[in-house]
Structure formats: structure tokens, C-alpha cells
Specification:
Layout lengths: L6 E3 L2 E3 L2 H16 L7 E5 L5 H9 L16 E7 L7 E8 L2 E7 L2 H11 L12 E3 L5 E3 L15 E7 L6 E5 L8 H10 L5 E6 L9 H7 L5 E6 L2 H6 L2 H12 L8 E3 L22 H8 L1 H22 L10 E3 L2 H12 L2 H34 L2 H18 L3 H10 L15 H14 L14 H15 L9 H18 L2 E2 L3 H10 L10 H11 L12 H29 L1 H11 L32 H35 L60 E2 L2 H6 L7 H7 L3 H19 L27 E2 L3 H12 L12 H34 L2 H12 L8 E4 L2 E4 L9 H14 L11 H8 L8 H9 L9 H5 L7 H17 L2 E2 L3 H6 L12 H42 L1 H7 L3 E2 L2 E2 H29 L23 E5 L6 E5 L1 H9 L7 E6 L8 E4 L1 H10 L4 H8 L14 H34 L1 H10 L5 H33 L8
Parallel strand pairs: 3-10, 3-11, 4-9, 11-12, 12-13, 13-14, 16-25
Antiparallel strand pairs: 1-2, 4-10, 5-6, 5-9, 7-8, 15-17, 18-19, 20-26, 21-22, 23-24, 25-26
Helix pairs in contact: 1-11, 1-42, 5-7, 8-9, 11-42, 12-19, 12-20, 12-41, 14-19, 15-16, 15-25, 16-19, 16-25, 16-40, 17-18, 18-40, 19-21, 21-40, 26-32, 26-34, 26-36, 27-28, 27-36, 28-34, 28-35, 32-34, 32-38, 34-36
Length: 1295
């Protein structure tokens, strides 16, 4: 109602500041409360003219409102006075789910584009609750028959128009028009028809029987304020429809007395070129008027237009008497009633809205707290980590299963196999058949080449021999980890039985011509023979190399087994990890637990044997389906992650690591067009791998001579009284055990007695199977190019296999005393020292060659000279600066001096004053040049007879040497030092500490305890001895380089007056040569450490020793070199081979020596001098014999065109030695690879880091992002609510 404070000035309503402020506060509260208070709502049928009516009620042409059924959601339009706005500004806001849009516009076109966008269900189906849009672009709705064009939504879009000329705030809600047959439009309209709202029902041209307005009228009877507007009055009055409409509405509203029907006909809207439009009768160009005359003028004009149209109606139908108190022409009374509604109980309305807002603020705060908690829960979900950990543990248990457990998994948690060929338990032959079939099916090979170890018949023959004579479990139907181990044993057997292609005579002749270019410039027949043997792997022109084809078959077989077992393991997870799956689904299965509280998911309590795992009978079918979908997706990701983990572990171990660029992509070599492989990174990586002509496997050369024979350490002879004398137990240890009768000491005494007894009664390795003629036979191979092959007798190959695979059972209990652990640790330590010494013996000659390689030294110095700043000289000539050219690097005087030094070092020249014995070198080099436990080293050395042990070191240790001969002696001395190093004995405290384990079991087993004790000792000894060697070599190198630079006149003259980098030429060159030396030695020692690291995890089969290929007869047909070194005698070696087979493998025992302690420590012990010297001699090359056979004429060849029989037999020794080295190189690395595949920690890390199992991407990410948006939306909403409450908290006097 109008009050005394309300003024009218020339058609403009004038409100007081207080009135204006309260209206704005009320509208602000209505907006922030999302239409929960009293408001003006406009409803009606589609195309009834609601939008036009709203324009005339507001006094502004809001023609952005979509026409017809284009209005699919409510639109809240507000007029707001704003003295600061010279131009019209439209403030828009739309929020749906996580989408929030707030932006100000200055043109109606931009507003229209926004309104059109939010009303388009095809473009944005996610903004319509009745529709959902899946990732496959398929519609999914609650009502399967609903189409996008039938979609409506009740979330409004807000448009607020602000300008200084707006006199009265007005707020109207335009509701989508009723559409015939669409229940959503009716529901939305009815949701706004509330008792406290003022509802305007706009009636169009529809007949009451066809339109929806009678239904709305029935709902409006509860409203205290209703306004009825009949649009298109000219037509409807003429058709006598107005009275009928009024009567029907009156009936629906149950005879409400104060209702009135306001009739209006706005005329045609202005449209340029429209022929029926009449000026002065139809609507004007309101937008043009706004631009030219302003808002006040257009509002006044629109009011006048409705008044004019009302007068025209009154005049035209005055005779029909249609107009009365109930049916009124025009909108004047409508405007008046709307103003009355706005000011009615304004203070009370604001107060109620504020109280409701306070409630909403508390509600939103609680909702925000819950959303923040859920975001934190989704970001760092313990359920995810717990589930992956459970998966890893279950997979590890499955892979480590026994036959019974595997059978349980197969029959309990996976679909039982009805056919034998579908079983997951395979024999060795079935594995081979399956990998061959798999390779052929995938077109991995067009023929059978490479799908077996050698050939199917040969493979079967070898496996049969291994099964019959070595207990190989070829016929056992097994799976999981045990089948992987069996495959590695089968691979070992193939390496042991590998037949050697015979050497063509042409290759032998070419090797004879190459002799003399060996390392260190020596006539090295051994190197050429080894190199020739290695080249045999390239027979047939296929360039596959030795051992590599077997590794390729191993990789195929291993991949098949691992994939089978990982698939089976994943199939068990649904049953074994049901609880963790349930917990995870409770986290991610519902996007918002509050929104989906009507369909809760109850975690299943089913046991693994339940027929329907993971299903709750009380859950809704849709929830169960979703749970099954999540499980399928999750387990598929687990399998993909495991297979990727397996591929990475197998590929990196065998094929090597691919070099990657800064972007993480593989680097492709421009020449080979293959991805570059990091050098020495995998077993199958070859020398020069990234070239077009790669060489042999990187670890194959230089040849390790201990593969021709090494001591067995399984049994050691020791005096227990001597061990006890210097141990912490003392000699009275046995008596103490016997005297004390407590139960725990009795158990210790029993275990000690057993371990001592087992130590002496251990199996010496006698042959389990008696002699058979098959053992004398050889396994051959028919090659494609008809090259004949030779092989060792089956007995020899079987013995090689035994020595390489037979495990060592530690004859101790965990509670055995330290003095018995001393013996076991010494065994492993010495075996490892044998390996380290053999590796060094095969490396040091190559190191010395590189140290004196003139070309490599020139390259090194050239690189350093290239970094020297070039001081350019300038000469002024006729006003121009002309730069003089600098000397070329290869003409630098330091290069000439370096060439002279290299020549000196490469030869045997030396000054008498520089020559020293070994002991003199140690004294002059200083205390740091003394070997670990130097006194013990000298003690052992004094016991060596130089006439029997003829090596570079032992023979020449008292000879005065200088130059390269002294380097040779030092390198050989280092071999001796590694072998003779003493071992610190085990103390009680140390033994107690190693009993703990970081593995699955907290208590370490005997092998783990021994391995840790040996590793600690060897690491310390290696570090100390390598430092001493480096110190000693640095002393010798400095001496010899200094002598060369002073003794050679050409060197001193070249460097006279030369300055490099601020230093004299002599000092700079000396510095660079030392840097080069440090790099070469450092790289060699790093390679030695790499060899040691490759031994881990330690294989206790290393204690078995090596088969003596040099001394043992290998074939029945043996060529014996006579004493003259020039003639051969062919004879039958059956007796020697038979004797070897019957002789115990480990009958020879080595002796332990104990050094008395000084009371300050636990003391030391070592292998006997004889044992040390035997191992030392086993590492020496038999050069004389090799040279003699190498130069023999070609007699008794295996076939025409091939080298002689004696040379073939010599090559066979090296061939077998290379394959034995392959066994000892590959087995520890393959075991480490298998550990990566089955250890729980590695599996868990693979699952956590795999892109195929991305929690955020595949499961919780979209929910997390939605919750983050929800949190941000709630924060903004809460901030808006709190701001609105603060701004509207002061309410003035009642109007």
C-alpha cells in the first residue's frame, strides 16, 4: 500500500532512502536464501505471454527471456536502483552442482546468450537433474523415455538490472510455462506456488480444457495474494472465452471473493518490416527508446501503452458488458497490488528472512565442515593404501603358495578348470608347448626358430637327463614361484649342455694372423682363442651370439609363467580382500554420502567361499551393479599394473634399461633407429649395443679363468679346540653346557651337538645314480648350415649342472655358538673372494692397456685443451683489426710431450734408481700403502715356494722392477691379496644382532645370518684393499711418469716455457696424466664392485666350487699333447670320465687356520696357505699349453674344412667356461629379478606407482574434484550469506 512517505512525481515513484534500503535488503535476502521467502512469481502456460507481461510490469524490455518452451528453468529478474551506475549493468548469477557463474554484462545480448546456454539441455545436460550424461555420449535418465527436449530444471538463473534511474526495486520470478504432457513444468510451477508468495497467473489463448492454468488455479487457492492476467484480450473477449476462463478459475479457487481477472492485449511487438504492425497501436521500439531517452522515459511509455490498450479494450467492448469488478481492463491495479505486496509487513518479512538466514548459515557451516573432512579423506584415503597393501600381501602369499594352497585358490576363489589343459599347474613340457603356441599365435615367429632352447628333440633329451640324474622336477605339475625357479634351473641345464659349433679352419687361420695384438702388447693366444669361441655364436649369419638365444627363450617362458600366475593371483583378490574392497567402495562408491543416503551401501560380510562375494542382499540392484563395476575396473587395473611391473622387471634385468630424454621419452638412435639401451644395464645387453654391429654380451669378456676350476668350500677341516681357545666361549664351553641342566641350555647343547655332528657327516656329493653308458654320450645339434657340433660327455655336463645348482644346507641351528658360525662365514667369504679375485684377474690387463693407449690419452688431453681460454692476438692494419690464428690442438707441445711419455710407459725402459722390490715399493709409498693385516700377508707370502708357484707376483716379488713390469706385478699382487685376506671372527654381540631380519619373518635364517656377516666383512676388506691398491699404483705411476718427463730430452724441450691454465706445461701435463689414470682405475674398480653387487642375493651353490675344465677329460675322444709340445696322441678317456662320475664331488677338504687374539678383539682366521695358493693358481692362464695347441697343424678335424680335433677340444674348454660363467652371472640376477616380482614391498610399490591404477584418475579423482568444488562453493555461499546478514542486520522503523 502507499504510505505517507511515498510520493509520485510525474509518473515516477519516489521512495525514501529507508524504504529503498529495506526493499533492497529484502531482495538481497531472497536471492541469498534461494527463493525461500515471500516473492512475486509469474506462472502460466507455454506461449501465454508471461515474458511480455513481466516486461510491462517491470517497465523494461527484458527480451532476453527465451520464447515458447525455451524457458526451461526459473529466471529471477530484479530491478535495483544504483546511483553509481550511469549505464545499465546486468549482474548475473547461475549455480548448479559444482558450477558457479557470476558475471556482469552491459548488453542484453550477452545476458540472452547466458540464459540460452543455461536453458539448453543438449549442450549442458549436467545442469538438468532429470538428465545425466555418461562418458559414451549416451543419455541416461531416471525416466528412460525422456528426451533432452523434454528436460526442465528448478534451479533458477538470476539477472539483476542496476541503474541510477530505477525508482522502485522490483523482483519477479519467471517460471517455465506449462507444457502439455510434461509433468516437470507443473512440478516446478507448483513448487513456487506457496501461501506467502504473490502469484501472477498469466492466461493465454489456450482453452481451459487444453491449458494447464486451471490446475495452477486450483493450487493457488492457498495463496493469500493472487493476480490473474488475461493476455490476448481482444481475441479472447471476442470469442467469449474470458468469462468462461474466469468462472473456471473461480471454481478451482473455491469461490474466492477478491479475485479479479485483469485483461490486456499488448499488441504486436515492434519488428522492422512487419506489415501488420501499426504505429500508435502496437508496441513501440522499446530498446531504441532506452538508448535515446533513458530508463525513466521507457518505463513511463510502457505504462502509458498499457493504459492506452486498456482504454481501447474498454471502448471496443463497452456494449458487451464483459468488464465489471471481477473482470477489469489494464494493469494499473496489478502494479498497485504488487507495490502493496512489496511493502506489506516489510520489517517482519526481513526479520523472518534474517532468522532463516542464520539457520542456513549454521547448516552451511556444518555442511562445509563435512565436505572439508571428505576432501581430506579422499585426498589421503587410508582405505586405498590399505587395500593395495592387502592386494600385495595376498599376491605374495599366492605366488609363494605350496601345491595344496594353489589347489585351494584354484578351486575356491577362481573358476575351477574342467579340462587338464586349462589348469594353472603345468609340467616343464607343457610350459614349452604353451610358450611355443603363444608365440606362433601372436606371430612372434613365422617358424619354429627360437621357440625352443635348441630344438624340441634336443630339449627333451636334456630335460630327461636332468630329471633322471639330477632330480630335476620336469614332470611335477606346479605353478607360482616354484615353477619360476624350475625354469631357471632348466635354463642352467641348457647352458651346461650347450653344444659347441665346430670351428672352421678359416677362422683358426685368421686368428693365427691376429696374434700379437693382444692387451698390453703381448702375444696372447688365449685372448684370440676366447674371441674366436665367442664368434661361434654368429654361425649361420644370424648374429644372435652365444647364450643370447637361450636368454631369449628364458624371457619368453618367464613372461608366460608370470602372466599366468599374476592373472590367477588377481582372480583370488575378490574373495581374499573382500573387506578391503568393501571399505574402499564405501569411500568412492557414492559421490556424496549425504545425497545418496537413501541408497546406502552396507559392506559385505561374506567369507571367501560365499557364492556371491561383495554383494549385500539388502542393497539396491543399482548399487550392487555399481560395486561390481568398480571391482572389475579395480582388478583390471591391478592386473595391468602387475603385468607392467613384470614387464619392467624382466625387461630391465634381461634386455636392459632404455635411455630416456628430459621429457621421459626413449632416445632413438639416429643410425640404428632403435631405442638406445644403457650400457651394461641388462644380462642381454651386448658390447656396442647401440651400433649397427653389436658384439658379444657385455659380461662375457674378458674371460674369467676361475670358470676352468676353483676349490670347493662346502667342507672345511678345523680344530674345534683351537677355535674355542680364542673364542668368547673358551675351552670350558662344552663343560658349562653339560653342567647346566636348565631346559633352554639343554636345547642349546643339543643343537650344538647336532651342528658339530652334521659338520663332519655332511654329504660329500657322491653320485646318486650309478654309471650308465648314456653318461658317456654327447648331445649334438643339427645346425641349418650343416656345421657339426661337439659337446662334453653327458657326465661332465651333468656334473657342471650339479655344481652350479646344488644348494648348500647350513649344518647349524640359529642358536649355534659363534665359533661354528666362524667356519660357515669363512666359507662364504672365501668363495666371494674367489669371485672378486677372478673378476680382477680378468680386468687388470685391459686396464693397463687403456692406461698406456696413446690415442685415448691424446683424446683426453685434447678435451682438456679445448677448454683453455684462447687469448686472441690482434694486429692493426690500415685501420682494420685482423685476428691471428692460434696453433691447432694436435700441434700443441703438450700433445707431443704426452706421446713421448706414452712411449716410455709402453716399453720396458726404466732407470736403475727407480727399480724396487715389492717390499721397497711398500716402504717408499708410506704406511697407507700397507695391505690390510699386512703382517699376515707377509706371513703367508713367506710360505709360498716361488719355484712351484710361477706367477708375475710370486716369481718377481723380490726382483727390482720399474715401469710397466712393476704395474703388472702390482695388479697380480692384488689378486693374491684378495685371496689371502683374513677374516675377523664373529663375536657374541655381532651374532646376536644378525639374528634379526627385515624380511617377512622377523627372525633371520642361517643362510641370511651368514650372508650378512660375510657381506659386512667383505665390504670392509674391499674398501681398505682398494684404497691401498690405488695408493700403491699412484706411487708407481707418479714415479714412472716423472722419470719419463725428465729422462726424455724431447719431452723437456717441448714443455720448456709452456704455460697452461696458469701452470707450467710440465705440471699441467702431470696433472692431466694423473687425472686420466684416476679415471681409468676408478672405472675399473667400479666395474669390480659391479661384479660383486651382481653376486647378490648370494647363491650358496657358490661353495660347490667350479668344475676343473683344464685338468678334467671332457669327451670320450681325447687329444693328449705330448711332452715335446708338437705332437698329439688320441686316446679313449672313458676311464677318467667314469672315475670323475664315481668320485665324490666335495671330497677334498680345505683347512682352517686360526690366529691367536691379542685380547683386544675377537681375533682372525683364514684359509690355509695351501688352499689360498691353489685358488690363486686356478686363476692363472695356461698360456704355454694354449699356445702349443693353437699353433698345431690341422689334424683329425671333425669334418672337412674345420680346424683340427685338438684345437676343437681346446675351444670346447673355453666354450664351456663361458657358459659356466653365464650360469654364475645370470642365476643371482635372475633370482633378484624374481624377488622383485614376488616380494610384497615391490608389488605394493608397483600398484601404488602404476599409471594403470591411478586412484585420482580412475576412482576418487572426479569425486574429489567435485567435493573440492563443493567446498569452494559452500565457502562462497557461506561468505555471501554472512555478508548479506551483516548488510541487512539494521532494520529501521516500520513503513
Amino acid at each position: 500500500m502507499w504510505t505517507a512517505h511515498t510520493k509520485v512525481d510525474s509518473g515516477k515513484v519516489v521512495l525514501s532512502d529507508d524504504q529503498l534500503s529495506k526493499l533492497q535488503d529484502r531482495n538481497k535476502l531472497l536471492d541469498i536464501l534461494e527463493n525461500q521467502g515471500q516473492q512475486i512469481v509469474v506462472v502460466g502456460d507455454t506461449s501465454s505471454g508471461k515474458s511480455t507481461t513481466i516486461n510491462f510490469l517491470l517497465g523494461y524490455p527484458f527480451n532476453f527471456v527465451a520464447q515458447g518452451i525455451g524457458t526451461r528453468r526459473p529466471c529471477v529478474m530484479t530491478l535495483t536502483p544504483d546511483a553509481t551506475q550511469e549505464e545499465v549493468v546486468f549482474k548475473t548469477r547461475f549455480q548448479k552442482n559444482d558450477f558457479v557463474h557470476e558475471e556482469n554484462y552491459t548488453t542484453l545480448a550477452d545476458v540472452a546468450a547466458l540464459v540460452k546456454s543455461v536453458n539448453d539441455p543438449r549442450v549442458h545436460p549436467e545442469w538438468f537433474d532429470c538428465l545425466s550424461f555418461d562418458q559414451d555420449a549416451k543419455w541416461r535418465t531416471a525416466d528412460r523415455n525422456m528426451r533432452p527436449e523434454d528436460a526442465f530444471d528448478e534451479t533458477p538463473v538470476y539477472v539483476q538490472m542496476c541503474h541510477k534511474d530505477i525508482d522502485t526495486p522490483m523482483r519477479l520470478v519467471d517460471v517455465p510455462g506449462l507444457s502439455r504432457g510434461n509433468r516437470l513444468t507443473t512440478q516446478i510451477a507448483l513448487s513456487f506456488i506457496k501461501p506467502d508468495n504473490a502469484v501472477i497467473l498469466v492466461i493465454g489463448k489456450d482453452h481451459p480444457n487444453n491449458g494447464g492454468f486451471p490446475h495452477l488455479a486450483a493450487a493457488m487457492r492457498e495463496c493469500s495474494r493472487t493476480l490473474l492476467i488475461q493476455n490476448f484480450a481482444n481475441t479472447k473477449i471476442s470469442d467469449n472465452q474470458v468469462t468462461e476462463n474466469y468462472n473456471i478459475i473461480y471454481e478451482k479457487m473455491q469461490g474466492s471473493r477478491d479475485i479479479a481477472l485483469y485483461c490486456i492485449d499488448y499488441g504486436l511487438p515492434y519488428e522492422p518490416g512487419l506489415p501488420l504492425w501499426q504505429e500508435g497501436y502496437d508496441q513501440m521500439d522499446w530498446h531504441k527508446m532506452v538508448k535515446e531517452q533513458g530508463l525513466h522515459k521507457v518505463r513511463k511509455a510502457m505504462v502509458q501503452h498499457t493504459e492506452m490498450r486498456a482504454q481501447q479494450l474498454q471502448e471496443r467492448f463497452k456494449d458487451s458488458k464483459v468488464f465489471c469488478d471481477a473482470i477489469v481492463p489494464g494493469l494499473d491495479l496489478v502494479r498497485k497490488k504488487l507495490n502493496e505486496f512489496q511493502f506489506h509487513d516489510l520489517d517482519g518479512h526481513i526479520s523472518r528472512l534474517q532468522k532463516e538466514l542464520q539457520k542456513q548459515i549454521q547448516k552451511r557451516r556444518a555442511e562445509l565442515h563435512r565436505a572439508q573432512h571428505r576432501v581430506k579423506q579422499l585426498q589421503f584415503p587410508p582405505e586405498w593404501d590399505s587395500m593395495l597393501a592387502s592386494f600385495a600381501a595376498s599376491i605374495r602369499k599366492y605366488l609363494d603358495a605350496t601345491y595344496a594352497a594353489t589347489d585351494m585358490y584354484e578351486n575356491g576363489f577362481t573358476a575351477p578348470s574342467s579340462r587338464e589343459e586349462d589348469s594353472i599347474l603345468w609340467t616343464s613340457e607343457e610350459e614349452a608347448k604353451r610358450v611355443s603356441k603363444s608365440a606362433m599365435d601372436s606371430c612372434d615367429g613365422k617358424d619354429d626358430d627360437g621357440l625352443s632352447w635348441f630344438a624340441p628333440d634336443v630339449d627333451k633329451h636334456i630335460v630327461k637327463l636332468l630329471t633322471e640324474y639330477c632330480g630335476f622336477e620336469s614332470d611335477a605339475r606346479i605353478a607360482c614361484l616354484r615353477s619360476w625357479q624350475r625354469l631357471v634351473d632348466e635354463f642352467t641345464g641348457m647352458l651346461a649342455f650347450a653344444p659347441m659349433p665346430c670351428v672352421p679352419a678359416s677362422l683358426h687361420d685368421m686368428a693365427k694372423m691376429r696374434v700379437g695384438s693382444g692387451q698390453s702388447g703381448q702375444l696372447n693366444f688365449t685372448e684370440e682363442t676366447v674371441r674366436l669361441v665367442v664368434s661361434l655364436g654368429e654361425h649361420g649369419g644370424k648374429q644372435r651370439g652365444l647364450v643370447r638365444p637361450l636368454l631369449e627363450q628364458l624371457e619368453r617362458r618367464m613372461r608366460l609363467l608370470v602372466e599366468r600366475d599374476f592373472r590367477s593371483a588377481v582372480a583370488t583378490l575378490e574373495g581374499r580382500c573382500a573387506r578391503e574392497l568393501d571399505k574402499f567402495y564405501s569411500l568412492v562408491g557414492q559421490e556424496d554420502p549425504e545425497e545418496e543416503a537413501d541408497e546406502p551401501f552396507q559392506p559385505t560380510t561374506s567369507t571367501p567361499t560365499s557364492p556371491k562375494k561383495g554383494e549385500n542382499p539388502n542393497a539396491q540392484p543399482a548399487v550392487v551393479d555399481k560395486f561390481q563395476e568398480v571391482k572389475r575396473s579395480l582388478l583390471a587395473g591391478v592386473l595391468k599394473s602387475l603385468l607392467a611391473h613384470a614387464d619392467n622387471a624382466i625387461s630391465s634385468t634381461l634386455q636392459g634399461e632404455v635411455e630416456a630424454g628430459a621429457d621421459g621419452e626413449a632416445i632413438v638412435d639416429p643410425v640404428t633407429q632403435r631405442a638406445r639401451i644403457r650400457e651394461r644395464s641388462g644380462i642381454m645387453v651386448r658390447m656396442d649395443e647401440n651400433t649397427t654391429s653389436p658384439g658379444p654380451l657385455h659380461w662375457m669378456l674378458p674371460f674369467k679363468f676361475n670358470n676352468s676350476g676353483q676349490l670347493s668350500l662346502r667342507q672345511l677341516l678345523f680344530n674345534e679346540r683351537q677355535l674355542l681357545k680364542d673364542s668368547s666361549q673358551g675351552l670350558n664351553w662344552h663343560m658349562q653346557v653339560k653342567r647346566r641342566q636348565q631346559s633352554w641350555l639343554k636345547s642349546i647343547g643339543g643343537s650344538i651337538g647336532n651342528c658339530c655332528e652334521n659338520q663332519h657327516a655332511e654329504d660329500a656329493g657322491c653320485a646318486e645314480v650309478s654309471w650308465n653308458k648314456k653318461l658317456l654320450q654327447e648331445i649334438g645339434l643339427d645346425l641349418e648350415d650343416a656345421t657339426p657340433t661337439i659337446n662334453c660327455s653327458n657326465a661332465v655336463n651333468l656334473r657342471i649342472f650339479r655344481l652350479c645348482t646344488e644348494d648348500y644346507e647350513v649344518p647349524l641351528s640359529p642358536n649355534a655358538p659363534p665359533h661354528l658360525y666362524d667356519v660357515e662365514v669363512l666359507k662364504l667369504l672365501k668363495a666371494l673372494q674367489f669371485e672378486m679375485a677372478a673378476a680382477w684377474a680378468s680386468m687388470w690387463r685391459g686396464m693397463l692397456q687403456v692406461l698406456t693407449d696413446k690415442d685415448k690419452i691424446r683424446d683426453w688431453i685434447s678435451q682438456q685443451l679445448a677448454q683453455e681460454p684462447q687469448a686472441a692476438g690482434y694486429v692493426n692494419l690500415e685501420g682494420f683489426d685482423r685476428q691471428t690464428s692460434m696453433p691447432r690442438v694436435d700441434r700443441d707441445p703438450t700433445m707431443e710431450a704426452a706421446d713421448g711419455v706414452c712411449g716410455w710407459l709402453s716399453g720396458s725402459r726404466a732407470l736403475s734408481m727407480d727399480m724396487m722390490t715389492t717390499e721397497e715399493e711398500i716402504k717408499k709409498a708410506g704406511e697407507d700403502a700397507r695391505w690390510p693385516d699386512h703382517s699376515s700377508f707377509l706371513e703367508v707370502l713367506q710360505k709360498v715356494d716361488p719355484t712351484k708357484v710361477k706367477t708375475s707376483f710370486v716369481t718377481n716379488r723380490d726382483t727390482k722392477l720399474a715401469g710397466q713390469p712393476s704395474w703388472l706385478r702390482l695388479c697380480d699382487e692384488f689378486v693374491f691379496v684378495i685371496l689371502q685376506l683374513n677374516m675377523k671372527r664373529v663375536s657374541n654381540d655381532e651374532l646376536s644382532m644378525v639374528k634379526a631380519s627385515a624380511g617377512m619373518m622377523s627372525a633371520a635364517g642361517q643362510q641370511e645370518m651368514i650372508a650378512k656377516l660375510a657381506l659386512h666383512r667383505l665390504s670392509q676388506l674391499n674398501m681398505h684393499s682398494q684404497k691401498v691398491f690405488t695408493k700403491r699404483f699412484d706411487f708407481l705411476f707418479s714415479r714412472d711418469v716423472q722419470t719419463a718427463m725428465t729422462a726424455l730430452d724431447g719431452v723437456s724441450q717441448s714443455l720448456r716455457g709452456v704455460v697452461k691454465f696458469g701452470k707450467s706445461g710440465e705440471d699441467w701435463l702431470m696433472e692431466q696424466l694423473h687425472a686420466y689414470k684416476d679415471t681409468v682405475i676408478g672405472n675399473t674398480l667400479a666395474a669390480l664392485q659391479e661384479k660383486f653387487d651382481g653376486l647378490q642375493p648370494f647363491d650358496f651353490a657358490i661353495l660347490n666350487g667350479r668344475f676343473p675344465l683344464n685338468s678334467q677329460r671332457l669327451r670320450q675322444q681325447h687329444f693328449e699333447l705330448q711332452d715335446d709340445g708338437k705332437t698329439l696322441k688320441q686316446r679313449d678317456a672313458t676311464a677318467e670320465i667314469k672315475d670323475m662320475w664315481a668320485k665324490p664331488r666335495y671330497a677334498i677338504k680345505q683347512t682352517v687356520e686360526v690366529s691367536h687374539t691379542d685380547g683386544k678383539g675377537p681375533g682372525v682366521m683364514r684359509l690355509s696357505v695351501d688352499g689360498t695358493l691353489s685358488s690363486y693358481q686356478n686363476l692363472q692362464e695356461q698360456r704355454e699349453r694354449v699356445e702349443q695347441i693353437f699353433n698345431l697343424p690341422c689334424t683329425d678335424p671333425p669334418a672337412s674344412g674345420f680346424a683340427g680335433g685338438a684345437f676343437q677340444e681346446l675351444c670346447l674348454k673355453f666354450f664351456k667356461g663361458i657358459h659356466v660363467d653365464a650360469i654364475h652371472h645370470c642365476r643371482p640376477r635372475l633370482k633378484a629379478m624374481m624377488a622383485r616380482l614376488y616380494q610384497e614391498e615391490d608389488i605394493r610399490m608397483a600398484l601404488q606407482e602404476s599409471p594403470a591404477l591411478d586412484y585420482l584418475k580412475d576412482f576418487g579423482g572426479h569425486i574429489l574434484e567435485k567435493q573440492k568444488l563443493k567446498v569452494e562453493s559452500l565457502r562462497l555461499k557461506l561468505a555471501g550469506m554472512e555478508s548479506a546478514l551483516r548488510e541487512t542486520s539494521s532494520v529501521g522503523e516500520s513503513i
